[in-house]
Amino acid sequence: MAASLNAFEDLVANHLQPFIQFSGQIGGLVQEQARLTMEAFKEQRKFIEMASQMAKPSNDAQLMQLLQPISQLITQIQEIKERNRKHEHFNHLAAVAEGIAAIGWVTVAPTPAPYVKEMCDSAQFYTNKVLVAFKDNPVMIHHIEWAKAWISFLTELQKYIRQHHTTGLVWSLSAISSQAPPPPPPPPLPVGLDLGPGGGKSSADQAMDDARAALFASINKGEDITKGLRKVTADQMTHKNPSLRPTNIVTETKNLSISQQTKGVTQQPEKLCLEGKKWMVENFKGRQDLLLDDTYLQQSVNVYQCEDCVLTVKGKVNSITVDKCKKFGIVFDSIVSVVEFINCQRIKAQAMESVPTITIDFTDGVELYLGKQSLNVEIISSKSSSINVSVPAPNGDYVEHPIPEQLKSTWNVKGFHTEAISKN
């Protein structure tokens, strides 16, 4: 285990420390979040050392107590992101909040490295935004280096795990579990998925699953999860199972009806206003007449949690982001940089003039209508389905083209070559 600890210390010194230094150059909330990240991995180092001196706990309360310092730091990191959605460096904060979930690898078996890869991919979605935002500004080169350093660290973390903890965190085989601190009274677990009594597992395995779920609940704290959901296993993750997304209904451990589960949840106040250079459109339902017509190209538009609405954006703006919207339609004139759809369902969008890039992430059911001036657009999709793009034909009608969802990879001696499989 000494080799594992030495390698972990080298990982932190050689790959996490540069990220901390670049965060210090940016300052503010980015620096504070990075400080908490360093503290979290210092606690993980202690946890790995502790595991080398004791047997794997069979009591969920024991394991939760051991993981409590890490869980508390993860919660603080996540809260910085959630409290500052409109911050100028929100993409930085989101990248760290998404990537810090990788620290939960210590509870994942038998494939902890692929789990870290998933968290790295989630973080990279936001670091890519940082790279795009600062690529043409040499004065802000430290933002570029910051983004690269964070992804580099998560990538090196995967390599460390593959080498030293291939099938999961290595616990001592000779020590006994009584060496662990005495367990406190078990805290109430968050409401989660009902897998039945034990799910066919031994009591020790079930206890480990419960403890793992408690840690994941802290790792993945967010607006929806804090309302009663927790991540458990891959087959229950909404981004891997589209059938779970339309209703967001999961079974509670208590026999409550759906109406009882949602009782008391209030609709957030509607907002349509300009804050600095950002138009905020939030929490509308059933509005087909939303309009932004006093715009200019330095402004951006952020649309959040709207349902069964149509928004028209007149003039030329820098960017548009549509996040957590359902049955949402948007018509826009001209875009300087990018239009983004994130965590959405059933989207219709029409580009009247030019738009360089459209990104679609974690979104199901997208219908894009492109005008003649927008045919040079780049469409980048990730973990999304049912994307159809309609382009004008010579006779004036629109012709629909589906975006392939399947990929084919073939070996060509040097590596794998991947190409899309057309839906034609």
How much is the average pLDDT? Answer: 80
CATH superfamily of the largest domain: Adenylate cyclase-associated CAP, N-terminal domain
Radius of gyration: 23 Å
Strand content: 15-25%
Return the CATH class of the largest domain: Mainly Alpha
Question: Percent of residues in helical segments?
Answer: 25-40%
Question: What's the helix count?
Answer: 8
Q: How many distinct folded domains?
A: 2
Large-scale geometry: globular
Structural class: alpha/beta
Enumerate the spans where pLDDT stays under 50 for 5 or more consecutive residues.
Answer: 174-205, 221-232, 246-265
Strand tally is: 14
- What's the CATH topology label of the largest domain? Serine Threonine Protein Phosphatase 5, Tetratricopeptide repeat
Q: SSE string, helix = H, strand = E?
A: HHHHHHHHEEEEEEEEEEEEEE
Distance between the termini: 54 Å
- Name of the CATH architecture of the largest domain: Alpha Horseshoe
Main β-sheet description: 12 strands, mixed
Family: Belongs to the CAP family.
Keywords: Cell membrane, Membrane
Main location: membrane
Subcellular location: Cell membrane
